[in-house]
Amino acid sequence: MFVEKVxxxxxxxxxxxxxxxxxxxxxxQKRTLANLSKxxxxxxxxxxxxxxxxxxxxxxxxxxxxxxxLPHGHVAAVLGMVRKIALDRLILSxxxxxxxxxxxxxxxxxxxxxxxxxxxxLGFVRAVDGETATTSLGDVxxxxxxxxxxxxxxxxxLLGQQVRIEKGLxxxxxKDGVLVLYDVSSSYFEGRHCPLAQYxxxxxxxxxxxxxxxxxxxxxxxxxxxxxxxxxNAADPTTLRSQVEKLKVRFGIARVVLVGDRGMITTARxxxxxxxxxxxxxxxxxxxxxxxxxxxxxxxxxxxxxxRDLAEIAAPEFPGERLIVCRNRDLAKERCRKRxxxxxxxxxxxxxxxARVRRKELRTSAEIGLAVGAxxxxxxxxxxxxxxxxxxxxxxxxxxxxxAAEAKLDGIYVIxxxxxxxxxxxxxxxxxxxxxxxxxxxxxxxKTIDLEIRPIRHxxxxxxxxxxxLCMLAYHVEWHLRRALASLLFHDxxxxxxxxERSSPVASTEPSAGARSKKATxxxxxxxxxxxxxxxxxxxxxxxxxxxxxxxxxxxRFTLVSQPTPLQEAAFRLIGIDPNRVQ
Length: 583
Description:
The protein is of the alpha+beta class.
């Protein structure tokens, strides 16, 4: 039997319940069993569904049961952004064999999981496994049972794809003549078996732990494109050569301007790596180099800054380069305050040592010297103090002339660049160097508040590299999410306008009126409450993906996503995805 609608001239069509049969000659015929035209449309639709093999269940809410409910909104937001920027297609190998597809799904899952709940790989396996799942991620990606071995195999596969993926990101975001930011950081290591883990300069202030060092290449907007892992005792300048090769050879960019701090782009690296590769650069002079420019009748005269805070000079020690001298008076006041505070704290500790000497607790010059050295080196104030250490005697005085000479240069820094003035005005060069703060922001998100790259627990060097690369890809997605959700976050959406209003690029950028209003009222211009990025992701996670069934038809399960809150609706609207369609 079936329901058929028959046209009825100018009247509404007739809705007939009909039956098919074969006559004595074997031909198919049909006959009308009932006229259903007077029935409501919803009843007719229900009857059609039943005749097609469907099952009728009661619509009473008390008979509808939730079999399982899993957090889904944050999964939908992050996974939706991954697909929107086509990062999953870039990760997937061109071979598209069954194993690669499985590896790609697991890598995408680990990437999403790193953003919504950073945890170990074993924790990830438990979180996406069907029985112990804590989010809808495993169901949405159809992962099924995930073994711990598969997660590590996917990491190994990802490392093999790193060169290809980074080249794809470079094609998308780096063009000829681009300005690239580069900086390094470190993360401490748990254990002692990884060959990359070495003791070095710890940026985490964990001198008791070995560490790894990694260098990050970003666009000028702070979007990460490539990352490389080095031994934990690698000095910053030694990491530069591989980045030059990466930009010129692997990415094939003919013209590029590399921006790095003064500890990274040194004179030796400029001569041996950058100039030989025909790369331009923007960096900053070290303090001794600035002092050399001031001495005698040097090109840097402090009288230049009586009425301005920026001046361009030339010096024979830097042939073919531009030197842009900046003086920030607010920074000068802060450095003066900090120096005085450090001196006062050091002198308090020295006074305690002096009292110990008078009580004859410290007798020999060697004993006194060890105690004094620990104090003056702790705050790096030895250069400002004249020490008198003898057996049974200790005293000190401040080097007032040296302190005064250093104070004259407070707030002064010198930008050093090879880019001609017609291609990069002085003000733009200063701002480009200050944009390195965006790389620091990326490190902060990767290491602490969002992605928790540390502590690192992998033993294999390749697994460590894959882990760091996975965290970089996660921050790549986070960068796009933050940009899309900026109006719902505490971000300053009018930062470019605020920069344009400054009298000089040397001055600090004051928050825009919109940012100040957000901070004061905790709401944006449209009245929506603003959140931190982590807080907004957590709130999205309260939207659940529910597996439903009826008691009389348990085998007929269906999925229902909970209704979004107004904030969740606004977030998904800004991202441009439908959480019900993220499958």
